[in-house]
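Help: why these numbers?

___
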Amino acid sequence: MEFLGYVSALIIGISLGLIGGGGSMLAVPVLAYLFSLDEKVATAYSLFIVGSSALVGGLKQHFKGLVDWRTAIIFGIPAIVGVSVVRYYIVPALPEVLFNIGDFKFSRRMGMFGLFAVLMIPSAFSMLKANKEKQNVGAVKYNYPLILVEGLLVGVITGMIGAGGGFLIIPALVILANIEMKIAIATSLIIIASKSLLGFFLGDVFTIDIDWQFLALFTTISLVGIFIGSYIGNFTDEKKLKKGFGYFILVIALFIFYMEFLFK
């Protein structure tokens, strides 16, 4: 199972290198079901893996001149606050059993992984539909109140499920900051990297024991996969790959529902 887990780490990286996103959503189920980590540790490690992968991708986009750093900072600060507060205060305080319905016990694991599976569905559909390129018809304009709220919300969700939330960030940047799709995609990588890594280091490092050797190995394999995927991407149809991966994410979401709520 561990060997399969490390192979999956490589697949996560390859998918990120091929389609530029979405692969990070595989980190939580791989950590939970192949390495048997509990919900706190799996989502914590996922934050580090997601953040490291997004950082590599974001820096590549920066050198192409596609990152809007002002937007990244404005959106990123409330997101960082949200994820850090959730990982340091809320997740450690959650009880093992959240509530009871008769004899049915709704556990913390069900809550965290259930929310994760629910949010995988819109992420999958965002891959299935073709992104329409938004042409910048004017200067970048910031809706500061909504950006603050959206950034905080994305941070809270990231803290709970351990995933980047790019499918939430990208449309928010396009709508709330009036920037082009390709700029939004590049900028979202920097936001994901900053909030995921800072959330991990400001929250989880102080609340759980980190197996740094395992985390470093898993992350390194994923990063190697990114470069392999980037190379393979030169010879493949990105749109078809993205659509296929969208269906795969839907299958994983259904698998998580089955494992957490139906499998006994």
In short: Residues 2-262 form one domain. Residues 32 and 38 are 6 Å apart (CA to CA). Residues 181-207 form the longest helix (27 residues).
